[in-house]
Amino acid sequence: MTKLAVDVLALTVRGRGSEINSQLNDGIVKFCGTDIEIIHPLRDVLETEINSYCDQADLNKLLQSDESGDTQVKIKKSSKNKTISEMSKEYFQDVEITYPEVISTVVKIGSKLTTPQIDEESFNATQNDGTFRNCVVCYQPIYVNIKNWLEQITVLDSAPVVTEEEKENLQNYLNLPISNIDSIDSNNSHSVMESVCYGCLVDLGEKSGQPFTWPIRRPTKEEILKEFILTDEEDEDDEE
Question: Which residue windows are coiled coil (predicted)?
């Protein structure tokens, strides 16, 4: 249950709330054309309860240890170097001892969330083969036009300029040599927004200015074997 609560909080912060339903509930998930059955046999058990059972049943020797072989060694990290999941786990570990009902409440609320409906009217939700569009990075379904959705929830108008100081600052800003944003390729930007889900858009935004390697299609078995198959012409060249 503790791990599920961590997933709920981490997915929400990372902008992946649409994945909470599939992460928490049992069922069949389709991935790359394959049906995968997801089950959570310990969904009603807290992490402290599992640790206590392992102590009583002498199962700690079967637990995976770190490289030093000591399961008690914990490497301290700075908060800025921790992931969202690590910070969420630390929070629930502190809360679990005193207020265990908080964890069960988070999991119960997360379990009630349903998978969003794809808004086919806001963007071209289907591809050429008739299947729904998936994110090119994480392959999760794209439910809504991210560009239009962000514009709807974002305040685009500035606060009214009232004081003389604000008017002076506004004029100084307008006099700055700002590059023309109209030169941006809007068509390319629009295609990228339709190809990436909101969660990946948040992750990519945090890595602005850093190189990003897009996923490359893995070769099939036939393509790999074809590289090692010798043809008659190659045999003749080797004999010469």
Answer: none
pLDDT in tens, 107-142: 888 888 887 777 666 556 555 555 567 787 887 888
In 3D, which of 1, 20, 24 has the Cα closest to residue 12?
20
The set of residues, in sequence order, having a beta carbon less than 8 Å from that of 8 and lying 6+ positions away, is 20, 23, 24, 106, 107, 109, 110
- Residue 36's H or E segment, with its range, is strand 34-38
Answer for the pair 95, 104: CB distance below 8 angstroms, yes or no: no
Rounded to whole angstroms, the Cα distance separating 77 from 141 reads 34
Radius of gyration of the chain (CA): 26
pTM of the model: 0.59
Give the N- to C-terminal CA distance of the chain in Å, as an integer.
68
